[in-house]
Every structure is written in structure tokens, then in C-alpha cells.
Amino acid sequence: MTFEQALTRLDEITALLSNGSTSLEQSLALYAEGASLIESCTQQLNDAKTKIEKLFPEKEGPSDAI
Amino acid sequence: MRMPVLKVSQLNRYVKSQLEGDPRLKEVYVAGEIGTLTANQRSGHLYFTLRDDMSAIKAVMFAGNAMQLKFMPQSGLAVVARGAATLYERDGAFQLMVSELMLDGAGAQGFAFEKQKQLLAAKGYFDAHKKRAIPYNPATVGVVTSDSGAALHDIISVITRKNPTVQLLLAPAVVQGPEAPASIASAIAALNRDGRSEVLIVGRGGGSAEDLWAFNAEAVVRAVAESRIPTISAVGHETDIALCDLAADLRAATPTAAAELAVADRAQLVERLAQRSNMLKNAIAHQLVLKERLLLEKKSAEPLKNPRFFINKNRQRLNNLIESMYNLSQSEIANRFEPVARRAALLDSLSPLRVLARGYCIAAKDGRPVISAEDLHKGDIITLRLHEGGAAAVIQSIAAEGEKL
Questions:
Q1: Does the pLDDT at position A25 exceed 80?
Q2: Does B149 have pLDDT greater than 90?
Q3: What is the pLDDT of residue B2?
Q4: I need a labelling partner for B238 at 20 to 30 A (CA). Which of A27, B40, B174, B288 fits?
Q5: Minimal CA–CA distance to B184: which of B147, B158, B155?
Q6: Residue B274 contacts residue B280 (beta carbons within 8 Å)
Q7: Chain A residues with beta carbon closer than 8 angstroms to that of B286
Q8: Could you give the CA distance from residue B199 to residue B233 in angstroms, rounded to a whole number?
Q9: Residue A64: its pLDDT value, please?
Q10: Model-level pTM?
């Protein structure tokens, strides 16, 4: 899941929790899901190191990481 | 037979209409050198001659168009004029009505550029409605440029600094010379086939107009226009415009600017995430408050708030039941006892004890009733049972049956 997809899902979760129609069990499960999304996004931001990969359009072969 | 004789004005009008009726003369590009030139100070119109080594033509550029000029036209300058060939009726003067004037060199390039632009515009490559939005925070950015150029270095350093979460996919291309258009187009196609990139940067650093020419080529323009992935074009410096820019979804002035436009700032992402995190915490806290309130409401409902109420209520009911059962049993018992009581009364009426009430008494000796005087002796102690109470008596005298005492 990309960062943006994770934020979109977080918005959904927050909306569900805010309208109050979920059961307590559902609410807690949603919260747990949200917390783990935040955790993985934070990790994504903190551990970030630009990855550069080269494609070779001429050859249809495998690409090389540099 | 005599030919009809025309007036001068008739001839001029006819020639003018002939010229203006020819679509090929409506818009022509004419290269030449500016000869004599006068600017009408009052109206702002420009009058000049345009000539080459063999011929000359009068030219006029009206103020509205002359105001758009980016250079000062002067005698001796090599230019390309765009305009319509027509006739100035009053003087019978054949002239060029100029709408646009470009310096030659750049002028010749500009001419070719304009032609190419029209050609490609007609094919719909620049249509505004085909432009797509550049995603705000792409996870993967594809780059088409020379892998030895400064542009690549600039792009990598901007993206590494601004948002290191982004993955870069490089598709190296030859960016100048005759192989360049096909090379750039196939790099764009390769990134589209790969499919991971959410946005593409296509471009190169600054260079001469010839160096940048590949980015006007139809192969490149088509590849950019047909890319399924939104594309940012960045060709040369600020002032350079390539047809590739017009086909792209977004034009950046330079490759550095393109990199800035392509990726979101990491600090902003951190902030957005923090915001979401707060919203989530608030939402669950709010939710828990709601649930707690609901629980309180249930708790304060009568039976839970005061459990004795129900117990008391039921106890009352039980008591009522017990009482009514008791009452019922009493009357039942009474009913059952009634015949017994009747018999008891009858029996009672027959009881010898009843006789005592009439003044008789029962004499007993040693606990046995005395039936006959013969059982008694003088001095015996007998008990007398009266209707009410009793007495002990000593026998003083005895009379036999039929005797008098």
C-alpha cells in the first residue's frame, strides 16, 4: 500500500469512527487497523532512502538496480 | 473586337480580390532582410521593405501586431515575416500585410517550429482536455533523460532532498542528434510498459536550439501525448519552449523545477500523517465517550438503577398470593368443618354432661361412677362432678333401694 493509499484508508476509518454507527468491537478493530497504518507510514517516512532503478528501453531485458 | 476598357480603380480592385481569393497567399512565411523602415509615430504602424538578393516587397505591420514584437526591427536585420500577400488598392502597390515578425536564424527555426506545431496540434496532441492532473505524492517517479547529463543529477538531488521515500525509475535516452526522438519515445514507452511510475519527467538540460530540437519531434510529442502516465516536460532553460512541453500534462521550466513539481515535501507528509493520527485518536476517543454514555443510559434505567424495586414489587405480589391462598383455605376449611360441627353439636346435646346443667351431678368413687348405694360405705370419700366445678363429700349414711334416708 502506498503512502497516499494508506492516508485514504485512514480517512475512511476516521469517518467510520466519527459517525458512530460501528459496534465497539468494530471500532476497536478499525482503530487498530488505523494505528498500524500510521505506524507503517511513519516507518516509511523515517526509513526513507531514495531508491534508484534503471530501465533499459532498448533491450527488453531485466532492469538493473544502481 | 475591342477589349473592354477598365478604370484604374476597377483593375486594382480586381487584382486585390484575386490575391485575397487565393488561400495560399492568406498565410505565408517570407524570409528576407529589412530594407527601408519607417514607423508612424502617431499610429504605431510599421512600414518597411523586405528583400532578398533578387527582389523586394513592400510590407506593413499594423500597431496591434507591432506591439507584440520582442525585438526592435531595423534596416539590415534578417527576418521571417508571417502575413498575407495583398494589394494596396489606392497605390496599386503589391504588399505583405505582416502579422508576425521573427528574427531569422531563430527566425528560420521559429518558422519550422510553427509549422511543426500546427501539424501536431491538428493531430490533437496538445488538446487541453487530454491533460491529466499530476499526482500530489507519487511513490514512484519515472525519468527520461540522458544518464550522463546534468539534468539527471539535478533531478536525483532534488528528489533525494525533498522526499527520499520516492523511488526513481530511470529510462536513459539519447537526448540530441538524429537518434534522439526514437530513443526518447522508446524510453517513455518502456516506463509505460513497466507501469510502476505514477508520474514521468521527460527532459534535458539547456543547450542550443538544435540540441533541443529532438523535443519538437513528432515521435516524442506523440509518445508524451499518448503516455498513460501523467508527464512533466522539462526541456532546457526557462525561456526554451518545446512542442514536448505543449503535449505534456505539465511544463516545468527546468529539470530541477520538474523534480520539485513531481514530488511532495517529506515534511508535509509528516505533518499530514500527524494530522491523520490525531483525527483517528479523536475519533476513537469520541466513539468511546459515545459508547460510555450509552452504557450509562442503560445503567440508569429503573430496573438496573434500583434492583430492589423489582424485588419489592414481586415480594408484594407473593404476599398477596399467600394471603389469598390463606383466605381461600380458611373458607375451605370452614366448609369442610361444617358437617363435623353439626354432628359435634348433636353429639354434645346427647352428652351426659349436659344433664349436669340441669342440677344433676355425677358421683364417683376411686374414679368410677357410683351407680348403686351398695357400692358405698359410711365414711367413703366420693367426688362430685357438678355442672360447674366439683366437690369431695364424705358418706354419712346409706339407704338401700326403696329405703328412705
A1: yes
A2: no
A3: 75
A4: B174
A5: B147
A6: no
A7: 17-18, 20
A8: 11
A9: 47
A10: 0.56
Max CA pair span of chain B: 217
Cα B257 → chain centroid: 30
Contact: B170, A54; criterion CB under 8 Å: yes
Q: Which three cell numbers stand for residue B399?
A: 339407704
Residue B83: pLDDT band with limits 50, 70, 90 = very high
Closest CA in chain A for residue B169: A53
Name which of B232, B236, B263 is nearest B249 in CA terms. Answer: B232
Q: How far is B199 from chain A (nearest CA, A)?
A: 14
Q: For residue B202, what is the enclosing H or E element? A: strand B199-204
Instruction: List all residues 6 or more positions away from B218 whose beta carbon is below 8 Å from its beta carbon.
Output: B116, B119, B120, B181
Q: Is B283 exposed, middle or buried (0-12, 13-18, 19+ CB in 10 A)?
A: buried
- Read off φ and ψ for residue B76, nearest 5 degrees: 95, -15
pLDDT of B316 > 90? The answer is no
**Nearest partner of B63 among B86, B82, B41, judged by Cα:** B41
Polymer length in residues for chain B: 405
Min distance B263 CA to chain A CA atoms (Å): 12
**For residues B338 and B243, which has the higher predicted lDDT (pLDDT)?**
B243
Q: Could you tell me which chain A residue has the CA closest to the CA of B279? A: A14
What is the grid cell recorded at B122? 491538428
Size of interface A-B (CB pairs under 8 A): 105
Angle between helices A24-46 and B266-299 (to 10 degrees): 160
pLDDT, position B106: 62
- What is the per-residue DSSP string for B362-385? EEEETTEE---GGG--TT-EEEEE
> Rounded to an integer, what distance in angstroms lies between the CA atom of residue B263 and that of residue B138?
6
* pLDDT recorded at residue A65: 44
Question: Of how many residues is chain A composed?
Answer: 66
Cα-to-chain-centroid distance, residue B261? 24
Shortest CA gap B284–chain A (Å): 6
Q: Is the pLDDT of residue B96 over 90?
A: yes
